[in-house]
Amino acid sequence: QATDQIGARLGSGATGVLQSALGNLPELFVGIFALRAGLIDVVQAALVGSILGNSLFVLGLAFFVGGLRHGTQQFASGTPRMIGTLSLLAVAALAVPTLVHDLHTPAAGHEKVFSIACAVILLTVFVASIPGSLKGGTPGLSEEQAVSQHAWPIWLAIVLLLGAGVGAALVSNWFVTALTPAITFLHISPAFTGFVIVALAGNAVENVVGIQFAARNQADFAISVILNSSLQVALGLIPVLVLLSFIIGAVPLTLVMPPLLVVGLGLTGIITTVIIYDGESNWLEGLVLIGLYGIIAVSFWWG
Known about the structure:
By secondary structure, the protein is an all-alpha fold. The chain has helices at 2-23, 25-36, 40-70, 78-102, 111-135, 143-148, 154-170, 172-186, 190-202, 204-215, 219-248, 259-276, 283-299, and strands at 73-74, 280-281. The protein contains 13 helices and 2 strands. A two-stranded antiparallel sheet has the order 1-2. Helix 10 runs antiparallel to helix 11. The longest helix is centred in the first third of the chain and has 31 residues, at 40-70. It is globular.
């Protein structure tokens, strides 16, 4: 409800940025607690899985539900195209360090310094992209229109949304504490745990809100919330955790990832950009996104 109220006043662009930032608080705290526990494999898989979970599974569900209920849905494609381009930059920032390491180039052996440099570059680009994301999408209502529709005061909506985000983040420590016993008891791999379970749990806020928007035929808001969440993880959360890992982590987190994670991220960036480029979506495109997520997720079942 708070997201709806903010969306009515600020428009889809600013709402997507704000909702995604607060919705990603659990992922930030899960990452910090997992780093302190030395669960590097889980952190890497969870970060990439979060991007893929949003860009494939959640966006696919939103397109599927919205398409079944309303047919072909249309949305302003300018901001989503920009997010797609920035997401491809994040793919490159993971692919290059991984290739440097696996191909034994002259930069191999300097992955920690290289990762720090890439993290700083990604954060710089992310900060520069925020004004464009805030202005994108559909405009909100004027103050007179909001009052006439009995909208909440804007401060109340923001406080409630902030409280919900912080409340979700506070349980992250319990979640991480339960991970290791659950992995042992269920005999599942850390990679699958991070890629699917941790990623989808951390994205629960965006999952619900984005699909609700699509079901109500508010495609601009659905796209903004879901894709902004992926972008903030790719350009904001990953670099922040890389830098923090050198301070709080038992083992530093670098951008050298398992090749399968990088390939999955690359395929996600390409297919998502292709689908959103025309500013239209339907249930079949949603099913395609869900199908790709299922294929990649199953490949991690064995580790």
